[in-house]
C-alpha cells in the first residue's frame, strides 16, 4: 500500500506541478496526497484529507480535465470521499 501511495504522489508532482486559479489557491494535486489511501482503498477519509479537499475544491475541475489525473479524480471512490467530507464535487 505504501508503494502505491508513493507512486501516486510522484505521478501527481511530475504531471501537474503547481498552477494558480483565480481564487488565489495554488492548485497542486500533491496537496491531496492525504486522500490517497481513502481514494485507492475506499477507506474513510482523514480530517487532513477533508481539509485539503475543501482547500483544493476550486481546482478539481482542472484536475478532471487533465488526462493524467482524470481517472483517479473522477473515480467513484474520489466522489465518495468528497461526499463523506461534505465537499460537493463541482459540476465541470
Amino acid at each position: 500500500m505504501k508503494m502505491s501511495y508513493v507512486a501516486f504522489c510522484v505521478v501527481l508532482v511530475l504531471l501537474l506541478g503547481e498552477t494558480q486559479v483565480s481564487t488565489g489557491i495554488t492548485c497542486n494535486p500533491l496537496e491531496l496526497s492525504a486522500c490517497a489511501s481513502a481514494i485507492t482503498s475506499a477507506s474513510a477519509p482523514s480530517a487532513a484529507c477533508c481539509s485539503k479537499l475543501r482547500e483544493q475544491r476550486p481546482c478539481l475541475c482542472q484536475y478532471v480535465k487533465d488526462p493524467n489525473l482524470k481517472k483517479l479524480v473522477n473515480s467513484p471512490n474520489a466522489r465518495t470521499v468528497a461526499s463523506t467530507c461534505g465537499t460537493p464535487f463541482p459540476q465541470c
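The longest strand covers residues 19-20. The radius of gyration is 12 Å.
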